Amino acid sequence: MEVRTLRRLSQAQAVAVREDIKGTFMRIRATLLASSGTFWGSHQGDQDATRISREEELYKQEVIRLEKDLSDLEASVETLRGEVINRRTRVNMTAVEDMALVLSRASKTVAELKMKFPGLSNGLRCMLSSEMERVVREEKFLKEEPDRLESALRRCKKLTGTLVTLKRLASVQEQRLPPNEPQINEEPPRSAEISNADKFNWRWSSNFKEAITDQSQHP
């Protein structure tokens, strides 16, 4: 009886240790992914996408582990059931308790996954919506960019033709302009500035009349 009890405790401890190792491995992996996401995700959107991808990866790994445990448990239960029915053997209480322990852990994992799934689902929907918007933008860019480049090329050609025409016109105008003649800055003689009327203005001055009167009185 004591040997059976010790064996049952040993098996239970082995299962617990195996589960603890798996849990530790999952936490280490999550920490590494978080560090990687913090290092590479420079923007908030990138960090959110990294976090959601990490949660999705952990969720999938837990589901895979759960399904494997359930498959192994189902196989063990069927084997034990077949031995009891076909071989008429006695039911091993230790084996049944070990299976019950695995089933309890599996049920707990299912409950945790059901609680995690709604949040993960919302995060994935938001990420998919953002990805779809990005895909639509990229498709629009790929569709419209060739036309934009062609339009820019036509504008460049038009501007080139206009500039060539203006350059030719400027060249023709420069050839038609007369050469610049030097300006004469010499002042004309002051005698040339005196008109004929000014030459004889002295005859009507009062001094000239007095001089003529004096000459007529004294022959």
TrEMBL record:
Residues 174-196 are annotated as: Disordered. GO terms for cellular component: cytoplasm. The keyword GTP-binding does not apply. Keywords: Coiled coil. InterPro entries: SRCIN1. Residues 56-83 form a coiled coil. It comes from the Eukaryota. PANTHER family: COILED-COIL DOMAIN-CONTAINING PROTEIN CG32809 (PTHR22741:SF10), P140CAP/SNIP-RELATED (PTHR22741). This is Coiled-coil domain-containing protein CG32809. It comes from Bactrocera latifrons. The gene is CG32809_0.
